[in-house]
Amino acid sequence: MSDFFGDDFTAELKAYFLDSVTKEIDKFIDLTDEKLWRRILSEVSEQTRAWAVDAKTNEFLHLAAWLEGFDEKSRNLEGAAELIKALKTLKGYVEALGVEKADSADLATRFALNAQNLREILLLHCRFGSQEFAVPILSVIEISGRLPLYDLPEKKEGLLGVIPFRGEAVPVVNLQDHGFARMDADNFFYVICEEQGVRFSLQVTHTDDMISLKEADLQNFENQSSMMSANFVHQFFIKDRRSIMVLDLEKLVA
Length: 254
Known about the structure:
Elements: H1 7-31, H2 37-57, H3 61-68, H4 70-73, H5 80-100, H6 105-110, H7 115-118, E1 120-128, E2 131-136, E3 140-144, E4 159-165, E5 168-173, E6 189-195, E7 198-204, E8 206-214, E9 219-220, E10 233-239, E11 242-247, H8 249-253
Parallel strand pairs: 2-11, 5-7
Antiparallel strand pairs: 1-2, 1-8, 3-6, 4-5, 6-7, 9-10, 10-11
InterPro entries: CheW (IPR039315), CheW-like_dom_sf (IPR036061), CheW-lke_dom (IPR002545)
Protein name: Chemotaxis protein
GO biological process, one term: chemotaxis
């Protein structure tokens, strides 16, 4: 067989497939609203069957099974918001495949889709010293151990520097610039995230278990003058009588 079909070419085909699926999902998300969501759902269902065939061709067998079952999984969707959440779940799965370069049962389980989890929010509970916050698990790529932190050539507000991660220099958000209390510690590690195609990391001192919440459990910061103010923190929830902030990573990236 010609080298034209060697490993590099196969990897390029797989990357092209994942990139094209991601772009199509974004188009569906942009079009979805309360008036059009049922029509969009029908179009998505038809498209997922075509994607399933291509997923098998590209050896993403668990993704293919996910896509083949979309019709059944989506029967109980109730409105545009749940369809958008389902599409974002699929997008998260596809983007994770782009990072991992291989499909797996564990990855498919992480992005499992059912009516119940579309009405719930899955969060990773983190600590920065005594301060607690949570981030959407779908945006988390990996929880990394201690890594060297390198300064930026020029100081930029909101960033501490960069860390090496899988051959990339990933920026580290400076939580103190966003209202978190200053903390002197050496034992930091990192939550690597990706949102809207932008990869970044959060410096933490500890991560706890994942937390599953109903959207009704989230409270807005309005009239909560005692709580920290940051442009990407608008909601919180109560756990064991403690208030835990939820980071809005879309606004953080913006």
